[in-house]
Design goal:
Elements lengths: L3 H9 L11 E4 L4 E7 L5 E6 L2 E6 L9 E3 L4 E2 L3 H8 L3 E7 L2 E8 L2 E7 L2 H16 L2
Antiparallel strand pairs: 1-2, 1-6, 3-4, 4-5, 7-8, 8-9
Helix pairs in contact: 1-3, 2-3
Length: 135
């Protein structure tokens, strides 16, 4: 799983989150930085409100949370989500002696993004793609 710092970089680069069941997210800057939450149709759901959207914590007694504005939550995309976001630019994921690498082709240029984990390699490639798109 990518960390909060990489997730922030992705959001700042323009990656938009359309919350769905099974999505992982953090709530940084509220003394919950180390907690990872999973969006579920059973206990944590996204609700529309007049001012936007909130994430509702239904039936949660151990946390003093009723809901959190979507903008306060930070999406931590899974490996499959990161790969899907690369779309047709994605060429390969390979294991290396140092970890992993993701190969992409963007505008006819082949690029390689090495990282310790597959998720971090995908995220590095996606950051490059977002920068190239100018989002």
């Amino acid at each position: 799983m990518i960390g909060v710092q990489v997730a922030r970089q992705l959001r700042e680069a323009g990656l938009a989150w359309k919350p769905g069941p099974g999505d992982h997210f953090a709530i940084p800057d509220r003394d919950l930085d180390e907690e990872i939450f999973v969006l579920s149709t059973m206990t944590i759901e996204v609700y529309p409100v007049p001012d936007g959207q909130v994430i509702g914590f239904n039936g949660t007694t151990e946390w003093a949370l009723d809901d959190v504005d979507l903008e306060e939550a930070l999406w931590l995309p899974r490996e499959d989500q990161l790969r899907e976001l690369l779309g047709a630019t994605f060429r390969a994921l390979s294991r290396t002696d140092a970890g992993y690498r993701v190969d992409v082709t963007l505008l006819g240029e082949d690029r390689t993004f090495p990282a310790p984990s597959p998720e971090e390699a995908y995220a590095a490639a996606l950051l490059h793609l977002l920068a190239a798109a100018g989002l």
